[in-house]
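As promised in the previous annual report, we have extended the structural survey to additional targets. Below is the entry for CbbQ/NirQ/NorQ/GpvN family protein.
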Amino acid sequence: METTDTINIKPKTKISSEEIPFYKPIDREVEVFQHAFKNRLPMLLKGPTGTGKTRFVEFMAHQFEQSIITVSCHEETSSTDLIGRYIIKGAETIWVDGPLTNAVKEGAILYLDEIAEARPDVVVAIHSLTDHRKELYIDKLGITVKAHPDFMLVASFNPGYQKGFKELKPSTRQRFVALSFKYPEPKIETEIVQTETGLDKDTSKKLVNIANKIRNLTELGLTETVSTRLLVDAAMLINSGLPKRLSVKVAIVEPLTDDLEITQALTDLCDLMI
Ligand code: ADP
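The corresponding structure token record, generated without further manual editing, is:
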């Protein structure tokens, strides 16, 4: 018997029409997703953290009035976590469907965030859903479930950016239609920061300039650079009244590095730019 504490699943969300997620398209990703959805092709969203992958899935789900079930994968995430397990309830042993089985039965979008982090058996479990069979085999029950016509699999993947990163096997990648997410052009990113937080255009632009400056400082050897998410965080702090320089330091500089010299150098740079 297994416990259920190893999985991180967000509750199923059906985004209501009043709360349309704000998503600013960067390229032709909306069009690609529309066609992938129409053909129920699995999608792989590649790109660094904070580039809008999750927001994009939420936005597309809203467009198609689909529910999303999100699973944030980590090194312990196994196929059992996704498919389901027997649990003890009182004196009984009952079967509980996992998020993948729920999505397959109900016809939701299953979003596997950071799929490469999960255990290899997760990839095996989704194989038959990513090809013409579109079915899920539940080995513990000895049954096969045909996917609901609206079921769609979306996964995200952050391509190797640090030591010890996990790659996705080519045979797995080939099961998906893949889209690359990058940091947007300054004009678009300024609009995202502004719309997302209500910060004025001038300051939003300065934040984006800081981000681009730091993104180009490749010699610093940062494992991750400034994401749109960090800019949005900084903008929110400024908007709520925290001084600009302090906001930039705590939302942009400090999350990037623990190296004292680099922190000081980046803080000095940002102080001049904000
Ligand atoms: P990821 O899933 O790639 O790590 P998220 O989708 O969580 O990134 O994006 C982080 C934040 O950045 C979002 O909450 C949103 O505020 C902002 N963001 C990034 N890209 C966009 C975009 N194209 N349109 C709207 N907001 C965006």
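Confidence is low (pLDDT under 50) at residues 1-6. The chain has eleven helices and ten strands. These points will be discussed at the next consortium meeting with the crystallography subgroup.
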